[in-house]
Amino acid sequence: MIALYLLILVDSISVSVVIPLLGPLLIDPETQVFLIGSPLPLRSFVSGLLMAAYVFPMLYMAPVLGRLSDQVGRRKVLLGCGVGVFLGNLLAGVAIEEQALAVLIFARLVGGATAAAQPTAQAALVDLGTNKARHLSFSLLFSSLGFVIGPVVASSLSSYSLAGPFYFCAILTALAVVLLLLTYREAPAPGRRLNWGAISIFEGVSCFRDAAADGAVRGILGCFVLMQVAWGSFFIFVSVFLMEGPSLDLSLHQVGIFMSVMGVGFCLANGLVQPFLARFFQMRTLAVLGLALNAATMLACLVMVRPYQEYVMALVAGITVNIAYPSIVTMLSDRVTGERQGWILGMVGSAAAMGWGVSSLLSGALGGLGHALPVVAAAALMGMAALAMMSAGSRGSDAAKSVPQKPL
Length: 408
Known about the structure:
By secondary structure, this protein is an all-alpha fold. The chain has two domains: 1-184 and 197-201, Growth Hormone, Chain: A (Up-down Bundle); 207-402, MFS general substrate transporter like domains (Growth Hormone, Chain: A, Up-down Bundle). The chain has 15 helices and no strands. The protein is globular, with a radius of gyration of 20 Å.
């Protein structure tokens, strides 16, 4: 279990570790590594491209790897993916030292495609057959902790080398692979055989066609995608605004604190706040409230003038977005039968990956016109999601009082 949790953790760290580094690598003239002398719009777009290069492969590869693990076994897939994440982080570090942008983009593609093994690791935990709910709950906790640790690693090690955070991730991934080799065994399944005909790389997007035809989930899922585009835009580019914006000039270390405090908000919301509120309010009410408050918090980040004020906003942002997130997922789960739970939860993962990929490219383009524009756009989209949820969430049957969120 330690090896599986560690692999989930390092996958999340590998996603978030680059976010505080986007400014130093591409935007800040004093530390800029890539595209020196290029116009800001191009550099900002490439910042978004670096995130999209990691997220979009996850959208396509997660269902492929999941089906592959059903056929050839979890262990082989997890070991292969662990090696892929290791190589992706190692190549990223080398690319920064050698100032090779094409290699860095390729490294992020490799890391993103193999980091899609998180669902496979969760399936391996379920296969253990002991307290499934606890294992899945812990897997979500480690995934959230990765978003806390990643910015800390980036801000701490980048003072020595901008490549250092990626080398750290490579070492941590190597440790996870060694632990998998030494400790993880799965029950033999003689009937397993590889059938490439049952695997399609387009499963990550073709499932949206099925969702569009399902009136029970279509509106809510649309709001969820809109929320993910908004949150991805804010999460990725708020660090650039904090370092380069007109009202603040935070250091990379201070931005790391900001991102880490936001991660603490994730954990507080998932572990305490949302389950407590779910005892008294409907999921639709919590979703609308979380989305609206999160939009207001994004705008507040634009006008704060002191670092500690931004830290408070980071905590509120982390809490409010994770009041909305599990509430929406619970609404989606409640609208399908037990036989379709796997389908709807797979849709949630695909929708999140698609939203983050779109937000990376969209905000990268907007960032070239002004550092605050991606944050403004994120707040507007989050507000639109809140308004849309007021209508979408009212369709179908909601219980008068929803039970606390069940671990996914």
